[in-house]
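hey m, so remember when u said the tokens were messed up on ur end? i reran from scratch. heres the input so u can diff it against urs
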Amino acid sequence: MNIEEEKFYHIVFENQILAHERFNEKIPESMEQVEIWISDRYFIHISKKKWLIVNLVDNKLLFLDTHLKLYTDYSLPLDLLQCLNKVARLQYKNSYRNKGKITKTDQSKKINNMECEELLIVTEDINHTTINQWVTNDVPFNLENYYQLMGIARRFQFPNHDDSFHQQLEKVTGFPIYEEIAQTIRGKELRIIRKIKEINEENLPSDIADIPKDYTLKEKISYQELITQELTPLQKYSPEQEKIIQFLHYHHDWYLNRDINRLDEWITRNFTENTYIIGTNGVFPGEFEWRKGIQAAKEIYANDYYNKWNLRLFIEEADIEIDFEGQFAWVVVFGMVTRKATDHESRSSEASRKRSLARIKSYTETEWDTKRALYEVIHDASMILVQYERGEIFFWPVRCTFNLKKVNKEWKINQLHYSWSGYGFPAVRLFDVDIE
């Protein structure tokens, strides 16, 4: 059966977004229309800027951005990891999944002459989303087929929900025709009312059946694109940016081959005379990894070699900007630092526990009050035990920013900054501070 032979039902929803406040800006009430086309083997969701198509004939899921004229193309059964670029895969695997609970209330009523029952959906996300949803079985299309199609679509539309929540949603019977959605975003309430306007059997328009010829395939998307359901423009490098990509690969090659005999040559070729390096092992200017000059660079990278730090840069996803008449460039790239505790005797779990005991002894000899001393003991001991309980291979996500300068027509590093991700309590905290 071709798509032209499918019997489609056209469903139109109206979304009323009530007036609200966002980042101290007052947003007026607005209305938007959403369309759904349903057949036994197709589900097509159309909003203002994007389309989502589940196609069980070809076992495909398509996502289209009508503004950028881009689309993605994924095979079924859907594996979200196949959608994502390399950094996004790591981010998705390590991200938190929202939980939720669906409760069937005792409430029922007629909406548009259809018998409806109420569901209460509460998600444990940062916005504390609550949905009062009214569902009905009084629809002309096959609900069993709809459940299968919608289950696939939801996995893509709501990737940050956990499996148990999706499984609850998949057990819900009925088609939602009215919803009241409430969220609290940074202390401000947002309310959306979504209601059905019409359901009609109609022929699928020809311009919906196929991907327009002027659309471009985007093979991989970022985690942000997946979560926001908004694509970003394709990244295209200029010839000069391609030279910087080649330079980054040469810079990265030393970490991959780890040849200490090449260090002097590599530093001279990679760095300017007055290069400035800011690493993670330095709180104040002038400390070991917060220094200036070629000699400092040699010492820092020799230390990485002897301590067996491994760095992988995700160069294929680097952001590159060139300015000042092509003489300076800025590069931002995600990296992953890896070290096996067993590769270095001083970093083994036993050696780390011994160092922790030595520090704990020193805590008992400080002028701290007993309460703080005991807390420091607990913190130090638990940190060591927890970290090695997680495994003896350590992975650190690292943010790398390069400031490059063109010297004799060749790119060199003028400044390099590595930083760990930080949230919650600071990793390094100062106590005795004079603020003028």
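this time it looks ok to me. The chain is about 30% helix and 40% strand. if urs says something different then somethings off w ur setup not the seq
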